[in-house]
Amino acid sequence: MIDEFLVEDISLSGVTKRFGRPSSSSTSGYESSHIEDCIKFMHSLDLIDRSAQDVVKPLNRDVYPELSFEARLLHHIRSQHGDEYQLAEIHDLLMKHTSTEKEHGFRRVDEEALVELLKKESKFDIQWRTEKTSMWANLLDPIGAISYSTEHDEIVTSPTRALLHELLTYHQKHGDDSEGILQALEWIHEEFVPVFHDLSGAPRLHVAVADTLDNMTDDRTLDFVGMTDVTQTVRLPYRIDDTEEPARYKIGDAPDRPAYWYPLDRSERRLEQ
Description:
3-stranded antiparallel β-sheet; 3 domains; alpha+beta
């Protein structure tokens, strides 16, 4: 992975030699368009700097250094401003999308519906088409933020257990209120991926996020505790672990099975078999 390779300043030609595909038709001896696209993308998200002399320098490695590449990439996507925020805006609008029948959000959204939503509500002057939403979905699926069914042109809005387990574990170790579930989910919402469909009043959790947390409680990796004397609670769309408004949580070790592996990790493990 290029991100793991970039631990110090290196010329772009050095990156090309490491990750390029041999090509007799290229002046450099390597086919490198995929590397150029990756470098441009990482530069746009402040993961690297690229000098006029084509020297690549890693940036912001001190931001959540203990977290996986997937979580850190999501953080950088969400931390952008101006035009660079458009990737995060798609996710925001997707998770805010509700109806009278789906008042806690949608578990599944087809791409055409997402395109229409973006045409109506996006603040960016973009010609929204399914090609753009497919690009976005193909980016967020491998890093665990959503699932993308290309067969049905459909986005499943649940984040993976791998992502939520990693972030809840990190918050339990480092958060100011380490076991406060509202504080943990607000931190995830602000720093990584949207998890609430409504933040007005008592924050309301999106149903697809609740589904993932429910699966984690079934796996006995997550416990919720409701406390009647605590006001900092989260409103769930349905009861999980015998509570509709948990105040505290406890997270255990992740089981070593595919549901708790990031999609990229699952692919690598299959190749190693």
